[in-house]
Description:
This protein is an all-beta fold and about 220 residues long. Helix content is about 0%, strand content about 50%.
Amino acid sequence: MKNWLAIISGIAVLGAAASASAQLNVLHLEDQNSQAYTEYSYDLTATQSETYLTFFFRQDPAYWGFDNVQFTDSSANNLVVNGGFETGDHTGWMLVGQQGLTAAGTVRSSGYATPYANHPEEGSYYWNDGAVGGVDGIAQTIATTIGDHYTLSFWLSNDGGNFNSFDAFAGGAVRTYDGNIITYDGQQITGGGDVTVPEPASLALVGIGVAGFLARRRK
Length: 219
Protein backbone atom coordinates (compact mmCIF):
# COMPACT_ATOMS: atom_id res chain seq x y z
CA MET A 1 0.00 0.00 0.00
CA LYS A 2 1.38 3.40 -0.97
CA ASN A 3 1.29 6.25 1.50
CA TRP A 4 1.59 9.79 0.14
CA LEU A 5 4.17 11.69 2.16
CA ALA A 6 4.75 14.98 0.40
CA ILE A 7 3.87 16.72 -2.83
CA ILE A 8 6.06 19.62 -3.95
CA SER A 9 6.06 20.68 -7.59
CA GLY A 10 9.46 20.90 -9.30
CA ILE A 11 10.72 21.87 -12.73
CA ALA A 12 14.24 21.37 -14.04
CA VAL A 13 16.05 21.93 -17.33
CA LEU A 14 18.23 19.18 -18.80
CA GLY A 15 21.57 20.57 -19.87
CA ALA A 16 22.15 24.19 -20.71
CA ALA A 17 22.01 26.21 -23.91
CA ALA A 18 25.70 27.11 -23.57
CA SER A 19 26.93 23.56 -22.98
CA ALA A 20 25.77 20.34 -24.62
CA SER A 21 27.63 18.33 -21.96
CA ALA A 22 26.15 19.98 -18.86
CA GLN A 23 24.86 17.79 -16.04
CA LEU A 24 21.87 18.56 -13.88
CA ASN A 25 22.31 17.10 -10.38
CA VAL A 26 18.61 16.32 -9.96
CA LEU A 27 19.11 14.85 -6.49
CA HIS A 28 22.07 14.60 -4.11
CA LEU A 29 21.66 12.75 -0.81
CA GLU A 30 24.45 12.35 1.73
CA ASP A 31 24.65 10.59 5.12
CA GLN A 32 20.93 9.88 5.06
CA ASN A 33 19.09 7.92 7.71
CA SER A 34 17.59 4.58 6.76
CA GLN A 35 14.36 4.71 4.78
CA ALA A 36 11.88 2.34 3.18
CA TYR A 37 11.32 2.61 -0.56
CA THR A 38 10.42 6.19 -1.44
CA GLU A 39 9.54 7.51 -4.89
CA TYR A 40 11.20 10.66 -6.24
CA SER A 41 9.77 12.40 -9.30
CA TYR A 42 10.94 15.43 -11.30
CA ASP A 43 9.58 17.38 -14.27
CA LEU A 44 12.33 18.09 -16.81
CA THR A 45 12.68 20.02 -20.06
CA ALA A 46 15.20 18.70 -22.61
CA THR A 47 17.79 20.98 -24.20
CA GLN A 48 19.71 18.11 -25.83
CA SER A 49 18.82 15.47 -28.42
CA GLU A 50 20.38 12.76 -26.23
CA THR A 51 20.02 12.75 -22.47
CA TYR A 52 22.15 10.68 -20.11
CA LEU A 53 20.44 9.43 -16.96
CA THR A 54 23.22 8.56 -14.50
CA PHE A 55 22.80 7.23 -10.96
CA PHE A 56 25.68 6.99 -8.46
CA PHE A 57 25.66 5.10 -5.16
CA ARG A 58 28.00 4.84 -2.19
CA GLN A 59 27.23 3.04 1.07
CA ASP A 60 29.81 2.32 3.81
CA PRO A 61 29.05 -0.38 4.92
CA ALA A 62 25.36 -1.02 4.11
CA TYR A 63 23.28 -0.90 0.88
CA TRP A 64 20.91 1.10 -1.32
CA GLY A 65 17.91 -0.39 -3.11
CA PHE A 66 16.88 1.16 -6.45
CA ASP A 67 13.95 0.16 -8.64
CA ASN A 68 11.27 1.13 -11.16
CA VAL A 69 13.07 3.89 -13.04
CA GLN A 70 10.86 5.78 -15.48
CA PHE A 71 11.51 8.62 -17.90
CA THR A 72 8.19 9.41 -19.52
CA ASP A 73 7.28 11.75 -22.35
CA SER A 74 4.13 13.86 -22.68
CA SER A 75 2.22 10.80 -23.93
CA ALA A 76 3.18 8.85 -20.77
CA ASN A 77 5.49 6.50 -22.71
CA ASN A 78 8.31 5.21 -20.52
CA LEU A 79 11.52 5.59 -22.53
CA VAL A 80 13.75 3.68 -20.08
CA VAL A 81 14.77 0.16 -21.09
CA ASN A 82 14.53 -2.40 -18.26
CA GLY A 83 13.72 0.24 -15.65
CA GLY A 84 12.54 -2.42 -13.20
CA PHE A 85 15.49 -4.78 -13.88
CA GLU A 86 13.02 -7.57 -14.59
CA THR A 87 15.41 -9.14 -17.10
CA GLY A 88 17.35 -10.25 -14.02
CA ASP A 89 20.43 -8.33 -15.17
CA HIS A 90 21.44 -4.81 -16.22
CA THR A 91 20.28 -5.14 -19.85
CA GLY A 92 19.75 -1.64 -21.27
CA TRP A 93 22.03 -0.03 -18.70
CA MET A 94 25.72 0.93 -18.71
CA LEU A 95 27.81 0.20 -15.62
CA VAL A 96 29.34 3.48 -14.47
CA GLY A 97 31.52 5.01 -11.79
CA GLN A 98 34.87 4.20 -10.26
CA GLN A 99 36.17 0.75 -11.01
CA GLY A 100 37.13 -2.02 -8.59
CA LEU A 101 35.08 -0.95 -5.57
CA THR A 102 34.13 -3.41 -2.84
CA ALA A 103 30.40 -4.32 -2.74
CA ALA A 104 29.82 -2.84 -6.18
CA GLY A 105 26.25 -2.61 -7.41
CA THR A 106 24.46 -5.47 -9.10
CA VAL A 107 20.96 -6.68 -9.97
CA ARG A 108 19.50 -8.97 -7.31
CA SER A 109 16.26 -10.75 -6.52
CA SER A 110 16.93 -10.32 -2.81
CA GLY A 111 19.69 -8.66 -0.86
CA TYR A 112 21.61 -9.27 2.29
CA ALA A 113 19.96 -9.27 5.71
CA THR A 114 19.80 -5.47 5.89
CA PRO A 115 16.90 -3.35 7.12
CA TYR A 116 15.48 -1.79 3.93
CA ALA A 117 17.54 -2.45 0.78
CA ASN A 118 17.02 -6.21 0.77
CA HIS A 119 14.17 -6.58 -1.72
CA PRO A 120 12.64 -5.09 -4.89
CA GLU A 121 10.13 -2.25 -4.63
CA GLU A 122 7.91 -4.47 -6.77
CA GLY A 123 8.47 -7.29 -9.23
CA SER A 124 11.27 -9.82 -8.84
CA TYR A 125 14.50 -7.82 -9.27
CA TYR A 126 16.13 -4.52 -8.30
CA TRP A 127 19.50 -2.74 -8.24
CA ASN A 128 21.37 -3.34 -4.96
CA ASP A 129 24.46 -1.20 -4.36
CA GLY A 130 26.88 -0.95 -1.43
CA ALA A 131 29.96 0.53 -3.13
CA VAL A 132 32.67 1.29 -0.55
CA GLY A 133 35.23 4.08 -0.87
CA GLY A 134 33.81 5.64 -4.01
CA VAL A 135 30.78 5.76 -6.29
CA ASP A 136 29.46 3.36 -8.88
CA GLY A 137 26.09 2.78 -10.47
CA ILE A 138 24.24 2.68 -13.76
CA ALA A 139 23.40 4.97 -16.67
CA GLN A 140 21.25 4.97 -19.77
CA THR A 141 21.04 7.30 -22.76
CA ILE A 142 17.61 8.46 -23.92
CA ALA A 143 16.76 10.13 -27.23
CA THR A 144 14.99 13.40 -26.33
CA THR A 145 13.42 16.24 -28.28
CA ILE A 146 14.76 19.67 -27.45
CA GLY A 147 12.08 21.73 -25.72
CA ASP A 148 9.87 18.75 -24.85
CA HIS A 149 8.89 17.98 -21.27
CA TYR A 150 9.67 14.70 -19.52
CA THR A 151 9.16 13.20 -16.06
CA LEU A 152 11.94 11.28 -14.31
CA SER A 153 10.92 9.04 -11.41
CA PHE A 154 12.49 6.22 -9.41
CA TRP A 155 12.14 4.36 -6.11
CA LEU A 156 14.98 4.41 -3.58
CA SER A 157 15.56 2.67 -0.24
CA ASN A 158 18.49 3.09 2.13
CA ASP A 159 19.97 1.08 4.98
CA GLY A 160 21.60 4.21 6.42
CA GLY A 161 25.25 3.18 6.76
CA ASN A 162 27.89 5.30 8.49
CA PHE A 163 28.62 7.09 5.22
CA ASN A 164 26.32 7.02 2.24
CA SER A 165 25.54 9.09 -0.82
CA PHE A 166 23.25 8.99 -3.84
CA ASP A 167 23.23 11.15 -6.95
CA ALA A 168 20.86 11.33 -9.90
CA PHE A 169 22.14 13.24 -12.94
CA ALA A 170 20.31 14.13 -16.16
CA GLY A 171 21.85 15.79 -19.20
CA GLY A 172 25.39 15.04 -20.35
CA ALA A 173 27.64 12.25 -19.16
CA VAL A 174 29.74 12.66 -16.00
CA ARG A 175 33.47 12.69 -16.76
CA THR A 176 34.79 13.07 -13.21
CA TYR A 177 33.11 13.04 -9.80
CA ASP A 178 34.97 14.93 -7.06
CA GLY A 179 38.15 14.57 -9.10
CA ASN A 180 37.80 10.80 -9.63
CA ILE A 181 37.62 9.50 -13.20
CA ILE A 182 34.23 8.00 -14.09
CA THR A 183 33.91 5.30 -16.73
CA TYR A 184 30.85 4.19 -18.72
CA ASP A 185 31.09 0.45 -19.42
CA GLY A 186 34.80 0.70 -18.70
CA GLN A 187 35.45 3.59 -21.08
CA GLN A 188 36.27 7.18 -20.22
CA ILE A 189 33.86 9.69 -21.72
CA THR A 190 35.04 12.02 -24.46
CA GLY A 191 33.50 15.35 -23.52
CA GLY A 192 31.09 15.10 -20.63
CA GLY A 193 31.46 17.24 -17.54
CA ASP A 194 33.17 17.37 -14.16
CA VAL A 195 31.06 17.22 -11.02
CA THR A 196 31.94 18.48 -7.54
CA VAL A 197 29.67 17.37 -4.72
CA PRO A 198 27.75 20.36 -3.36
CA GLU A 199 28.30 21.72 0.12
CA PRO A 200 25.83 20.47 2.77
CA ALA A 201 23.82 23.72 2.68
CA SER A 202 22.95 23.14 -0.97
CA LEU A 203 22.81 19.36 -1.23
CA ALA A 204 19.28 18.81 -2.43
CA LEU A 205 17.90 19.63 -5.85
CA VAL A 206 20.88 21.47 -7.28
CA GLY A 207 19.90 23.16 -10.53
CA ILE A 208 16.16 22.86 -9.98
CA GLY A 209 14.38 26.01 -11.07
CA VAL A 210 11.62 25.52 -8.51
CA ALA A 211 12.76 23.48 -5.52
CA GLY A 212 10.79 20.34 -5.16
CA PHE A 213 10.05 16.71 -5.76
CA LEU A 214 7.20 14.30 -5.37
CA ALA A 215 7.99 11.77 -2.66
CA ARG A 216 5.86 8.88 -1.60
CA ARG A 217 6.79 5.84 0.42
CA ARG A 218 5.83 2.22 0.07
CA LYS A 219 4.93 0.81 3.46
